[in-house]
Amino acid sequence: MATFGNLTDRLVDTFKNLRGKGKLSAADVDGTVREIRRALLDADVALEVVKDFTARVRERAMGDEVSKALNPAQQVVQIVNDELVTILGGEARRIQFAKNPPTVIMLAGLQGAGKTTLAGKLAKWLAAQNHTPLLVAADLQRPNAVTQLKVVGEQAGVAVFAPEPGNVGAEDAAPKSFFGGGGGNPVKVAKDGIKFARDKQYDIVIVDTAGRLGVDAELMKQASDIRKAIDPDEVLFVIDAMIGQDAVATAKAFQEGVDFTGVVLTKLDGDARGGAALSVASVTGRPIIFASTGEGLDDFEPFYPDRMASRILD
Ligand code: GDP
Description:
It is built from twelve helices and nine strands. By secondary structure, it is α/β, with parallel strands linked by helices.
């Protein structure tokens, strides 16, 4: 995974220094923990996460499980692996489907995070599992957002519910686009979309909402109003893994503003430092459910903390 190439190299080098040692001295453990700390900070992992992580690794590495291990160096790698799985959220968590369809999934996040693309990816992935998703265009902030969602819907072969033509550039209706009410009101569009899904028996509704370049009160209020009005089964916070140190503040602001239930990491294919990926689950206590790894609609996968940890350490 390109995002973690550098981190992986650094960790692997650190572990190399331990290899072949029969017993680890306190200095060995200290040196290793210090290297891990530097490698994580250089990868843009949030300081509060790094501190907790290294404290746990140090404590365990000083304890019996390492001193009594046949191969102490390998045991340290195992501990780092376990603790990485923990900060990535522990057990994998999947989408929670509603008992009575439609399952409503709301997307929130900053502009450019990859929400609209993700809406298409998620819809296509769900459709392949015999679900009948409907995309709802409740991002009325960006002039192009409704059109973009329709294009994505068409590529994914999934229906799109959008505000009526005349309001938001919806004139070039794709065959599978439906136009409801709502006008310029995103809360109403979201509600109408869900009603439409219920009437037409779509079993999943994915509601795309507006993002701004930075966190702002108006955006948060709008997302929160939509959340209250539609009471979604899942609220997925979509975050660009490359945003670096801003990740934590952004995630906390969205957690407070809309109280999301899960995280989607995007742009894990990027070559920038992917510290966001390693910080967000831990600082918000919310699981990462999906990962997005490219611009194509198939560049998308369910997120498994254990697989991610192994990839980082490989
Ligand atoms: P939104 O403003 O949150 O709806 O973001 P968009 O879905 O419009 O995505 C913003 C840009 O990021 C677009 O150019 C997408 O093609 C691109 N993008 C989205 N997801 C990924 C990803 O996982 N990897 C890469 N490399 N680009 C992505």
